[in-house]
Design a protein that fits this description.
The complex is a heterodimer of chains A (220) and B (360). Chain A is mainly α and 220 residues long. Chain A has 11 helices and no strands. In chain A, helix 5 (89-111) packs antiparallel against helix 8. Chain B has helices at 38-46, 74-77, 94-99, 109-122, 138-151, 168-183, 196-202, 220-225, 230-235, 262-266; strands at 3-10, 15-22, 27-32, 53-58, 61-65, 70-71, 79-82, 156-160, 188-193, 205-210, 213-219, 240-243, 245-247, 250-253, 258-261, 278-281, 287-288, 298-310, 314-320, 330-335, 346-352, 357-359. The chains are: A mainly alpha (220), B alpha+beta (360). At the A-B interface, helix 6 and helix 7 of A face helix 2, strand 7 and helix 5 of B.
Chain lengths: 220, 360
């Protein structure tokens, strides 16, 4: 059994999660401070990939990143880089699809963070970056970790947009989900079962971790 | 070490518009009902809210001046603010909360340790230094929050409704503790409260605030004896307030059926006839008439008893004047060892001239 899809899926999910971590807390921090009307609009825009069919997301991504499209053409002509059909092209899809999960849970956590704690820290002379990284983030840790785990799980399981932007090339762009689809298409049930089991195992582990974490948070 | 504040700020229902000074080493209590703009005032001085216009000067440092576009960051103001819920850093221990409140670069390592340990010792925090602030009592939280301000070298300490987050039985001993700490602070202290007893016990002077305006600012005794306005009288706990008319030097309170000699009740305060619209009388200032009273300094009035409320150590008696067609209740409080209601239905009371407060 060639484990490349596992390796590829895991690295894509991990890289996406790291990107989503910074994008998520950054966006959540600024959106939580916006006036109500702007917040409402931004919220819809930032959350919409969560409810759109992944194929629509994939389609829109191709419209931007394809070699003859706006962004894609720029990179192709100037740097000779194709943004689609590589293993890392999938990261575009997973980031867009999984970002709302991180953003929403983090924003919820930020909104329940006591403004007075921040104000007290400011009057005591503490810098904005100290307050953010050493007080706000640790205080909102539970929400942020929950968001990260959900985003990781979503990125790991992404199929629709992935298959459109990276396709399925064994040993290059193959992920667990595209591999399972391809095995089913070629009637390779034996191998398909193995991947399905592996996938179930990973998903179960993620959920168990999430539940244990939630429980610990409730106790403290 | 004095603080001068002259600011305005538009709020949802009214505008905050204040002008006052806190002298060096003085404790000024800002007394007002909830939602009178008191907390906003402290936040503006601390710099976490920005006033619309005005200036704030602490000693010789201009913290805020709208005309000169000066607006120091909260970090630069060196103004300590004790929040109502203490606002401790919840992810840290008692020691870490205090450690991070020391201004960076001001002390060498050993000096800083000595400072922290000294203050933790004084405030009895040494034993719980490594406890999470989420797992300490209300009193310990208050002391930790105060310790943060003390190690921070704040030039001014401000307290937002201190003790109001605590249970009644804790308040008593913690107020004693707080009095000692702010008394030893040695710089100006400004605190806001809606609790008149607390303002009376802790403050040197009191500023009465109503709807964002300071109605009166004066030493504690003066505020409680002469609140001057109806709102001021209410906030300082005057329960008997009634409309009055003044004519030819006689102040009439129709719904109590009482009248007073203007010269005698106003004393030397210079009230003129057209300024007086109400009369206030504290219910505990009213005394039982025993027939030996000096009638040149007060008058005896007869009231009918409508109801008697029994408190722990006193009675609150609801009275009215039977000769008035539309009477307003008049409340009287008397210690239980001085009077028993028995089956009486009338009572004779002696109202000294000095307890009758003319109000605008």
């Amino acid at each position: 059994m060639d484990l490349y899809p596992l390796y590829n899926s895991l690295r894509i999910a991990l890289i996406s999660t790291v990107l989503i971590f910074f994008m998520g807390i950054g966006t959540a921090y600024y959106v939580a401070r916006m006036p109500k009307a702007i917040k409402g609009i931004l919220d819809v825009l930032l959350t919409v990939p969560l409810v759109l069919p992944p194929t629509v997301v994939g389609y829109l991504l191709l419209r931007f990143l394809g070699p003859h499209r706006l962004v894609g053409a720029f990179f192709f002509e100037n740097f000779d880089i194709r943004l689609t059909m590589t293993w890392w092209s999938t990261i575009f899809a997973t980031v867009v699809v999984a970002f709302p999960l991180m953003y929403r849970t983090t924003r919820g956590a930020f909104e329940s963070f006591d403004r007075n704690v921040e104000n007290a820290a400011r009057t005591l002379g503490l810098s904005g970056s100290f307050i953010f990284w050493r007080i706000r983030i640790p205080c909102c840790k539970a929400g942020i970790i929950a968001g990260l785990v959900l985003a990781f799980a979503r990125a790991l399981g992404e199929y629709g947009a992935t298959s459109m932007i990276s396709g399925y090339t064994p040993g290059i762009t193959a992920t667990i989900s595209t591999t399972v689809y391809n095995l089913w298409r070629t009637n390779n049930d034996d191998l398909a079962y193995k991947w399905v089991l592996l996938n179930l195992l990973i998903s179960a582990l993620v959920l168990v971790f999430l539940n244990l974490f939630e429980e610990r948070r409730r106790k403290s | 070490m004095s603080l001068q504040v002259k600011i305005t700020k538009k709020l949802a229902n009214f505008s905050l518009d204040v002008d006052f000074t806190v002298e060096s080493r003085e404790i000024l209590a800002v007394l007002g009902a909830s939602g009178s703009g008191k907390s906003m005032l402290l936040k503006c001085i601390a710099g976490v809210e920005t006033p619309d216009t005005g200036c704030i000067v602490l000693d010789d440092r201009v913290l805020f001046d709208s005309s000169r576009k000066i607006n120091l960051l909260p970090q630069e103001r060196r103004v300590g603010l004790l929040f109502q819920n203490y606002a401790l850093f919840p992810n840290m221990t008692v020691y870490q909360n205090i450690y991070h409140s020391v201004r960076k670069g001001r002390y060498s390592g050993p000096e800083q340790e000595r400072l922290i340990n000294g203050i933790m010792d004084t405030l009895q925090l040494t034993k719980i230094r490594n406890n999470s602030v989420m797992r300490i009592s209300g009193g310990e939280m208050q002391r930790t929050a105060l310790a943060r301000i003390l190690v921070n070298d704040a030039e001014l300490m401000m307290l937002d409704e201190p003790l109001s987050a605590l249970d009644e039985h804790l308040k008593f001993s913690l107020e004693m503790e707080l009095k000692e700490i702010i008394g030893n602070f040695g710089k100006s202290v400004l605190f806001v409260t809606h609790d008149r007893d607390q303002a009376h016990r802790l403050g040197d002077r009191i500023a009465l605030v109503n709807d964002g305006l300071i109605e009166k600012i004066a030493p504690v005794r003066e505020i409680f004896m002469h609140p001057d306005t109806v709102e001021g009288a209410r906030i300082t706990g005057v329960k008997n307030i009634a409309a009055a008319t003044v004519k030819n030097g006689i102040v009439e309170v129709p719904r109590w059926g009482l009248s007073f000699d203007l010269c005698r009740i106003a004393g030397s305060d210079g009230w003129s006839e057209k300024d007086i619209h109400y009369i206030g009388i504290r219910m505990n200032d009213v005394k039982l008439a025993k027939g030996k009273e000096d009638l040149s300094k007060g008058n005896i009035f007869t009231f009918k008893i409508a109801d008697v409320l029994s408190n722990v150590f006193s009675y609150t008696v609801k009275l009215y004047n039977p000769d008035v067609s539309d009477p307003l209740p008049f409340y009287w409080q008397i210690s239980k060892d001085l009077w028993e209601p028995e089956h009486r239905n009338i009572v004779e009371l002696y109202l000294r001239d000095s307890i009758v407060m003319p109000l605008k």
